[in-house]
C-alpha cells in the first residue's frame, strides 16, 4: 500500500477530522480553563453524561463546520442520551467488541496522530493529558463506546425488510404535488480487456507471500507485514484487520479459506479477483471471526499492457463496422465478470440500480462519458482496478433519462430505497420508545425542563 507522506507543518483534512472528534471526547475545551464544576446531568443505564460533554459536543460540531447558533443544549443532550442508550443495550444484547479490535483501531489512530504532529509528547500535549497511558485509556473507552453504539444501530436497521406491497403503498401515500423529482440520468456499459499476467509474475507473488508467512511463524508481526506489503487500501493501515461472518460481503474464495482455518493458523497463498492473499485467523467467536490478510497483485509488463490495448482497439473496430453489437461483444469478450453477463451495463454502487444521476456520478466516470453522443463509443481508456492493476476499456451510453417526477414503474428501485429508509426510521423510533421505558434513565437539575423529542423524562 502506498503510504501518504505529509509535511510536518500541514494538517490534512483527515487528521483535522480525527482531532475534532477526539478533542471533544478527550476534553480539549475552553471550558477547562474556566475550571467549571463538572456535574453529572444524566444517567442512561450504566453510562453517565457530564455537563462538559455538551460543551465537547458543541466543539465537535463547530470543528465540522456546523452552525450551532440555533442548537440548544437540550437538543445536544438528547443526542447524547440516544448514543448512550444504544451503547447500553448493545452490552445488554451481548454485542461483543473485542479489546483486540479496539486496540487495533486505537493503534491506527495514535500512529497517524504521531506521524502528523511529530511525536507522542506533542500528541499528549495537544490533548492536555498527563501521560501516554492516560491518553490511550481514555481513547480506548471512547472507541469502544462508539463501536457498541454503531453495532446496536446496525442491528436495529438490518432487521428491517421492505415488501413490494409496502413500496406500492408508500408511493400511493405521497401527494402528487410532493412526489420526488429525479435528476437527469444515464445508463453506461463498458467492455474491459485486462493484460495477461505471466506465470513468472504470479509465482513471484506466491513466493513473496510464502516468505511473509514463514517470517510471521518465526516471530514477525503480521500487523506490520500487512502495513508494509498489503495492497488492500481499506485495511492495510489497520494491519489487514477484518471482522466477518458468513453473511459478510466478501468474495466466496476468501470466505471459504477464512472459515476453513483454525485459530492462530495462516493460510497458504490463494487467488481471488483482487490478487493473491494470505489470511491469519486471529479469533473465532461463535459465527464470527477476527482475521488479518495481506493481498498482493502480480505486476503486469508494458508489453502485456500494449497487447491489451491492441485487443480493445480491434473490438471497438468490429463494433463500429457492425460485425457485432456492443452488448454481444461485452458478453463474449469482456474480462469483467461483474458486467459481461449484462452486456457490460454498469451497476450504480450507491443505489444498486443501473442508472447514474449526472450530478451524483463518480467524477472519473462522468469525465469518460459526459461528451459521448448516442451510440458513440469512446476511444480506449486506460484505467485501474481496485488493487491498482491497469487495464483498457471502452464505454458507451446505452440509455438517457431526462429529469422527471417519480414514476412507480420506472423508478421502483429508488422508491424502494426511500420506502425502506422511512421504515428504518420508524423502526428506530419504536425501538427507542420501548428501550426508554425499560431502561434506568435519570436527568438532573435544569435539564429536567428540556422539551425532548423522545420521552427521556418518562412523563
Automatic annotation (TrEMBL):
Q: Where is the PpiC domain?
A: 183-283, 286-381
Question: What are the record keywords, sorted?
Answer: Isomerase, Rotamase, Signal
InterPro entries for this protein: OMP_Chaperone_SurA, PPIase_dom_sf, PPIase_PpiC, Trigger_fact/SurA_dom_sf
**Source organism of this protein record:** Flavobacterium psychrophilum
Query: What does the organism's lineage look like at the top?
Result: Bacteria, Pseudomonadati, Bacteroidota, Flavobacteriia, Flavobacteriales
State the protein's name. Peptidylprolyl isomerase
Q: Which residues form the signal peptide?
A: 1-30
Q: Which GO terms describe its molecular function?
A: peptidyl-prolyl cis-trans isomerase activity
